[in-house]
Design goal:
By secondary structure, the protein is of the alpha/beta class. The chain is 30% helix and 26% strand. It has four helices and eight strands; from the N terminus they run αβαβββαβαβββ. A hairpin with a 4-residue loop joins strand 3 and strand 4 (90-95).
Amino acid sequence: MDGWNIPPLNSPLNSRIESFAVKARWNFQMSLLVAAGALSLPSGMKLGYVILYVKDVLRSIAFYEEAFGLKRRFVHEAGLYAEMDTGTTTLSFAAYGLAKSNLPCEFREHDASGPPAGFEVAFTTDDVQAAYDRALAAGAVAAAPPVAKPWGQVVAFVRDKDGIIVELCTPSTQS
């Protein structure tokens, strides 16, 4: 890449970046333990829901079933809200219209053709390559193929039909 000043892999900058990545991964894994109920927040609060606002709830849950093997737990009769069976923390989908009626502020709708929003949904699996291939076959867009990270995890990234980033990763070796 012409014009990019990328430091060599053994440089102090890359060591700091790798150290930051390991710490960020550890913090993320700790938040997952809190979400799973394995750790409690001091305030007694627990992460109960992650709600993704999407254009078409029924299309999204059908995609997550096909791409990631999730099962639907609840679908509202109007199709404006649905929950997937994902364990302690519920992964939900809500229609943009529902978001607009609940939120007094404006929000940015996802645009699959533009840059993704600054968050991801992560699923753990023992076979990242198979999960990645399944997601692509279901219509996900490749964001980053499976790669082994220095801290021991294998991770891959895809974008769902709304452009939301989904990480597929092996369980953390740091927890």
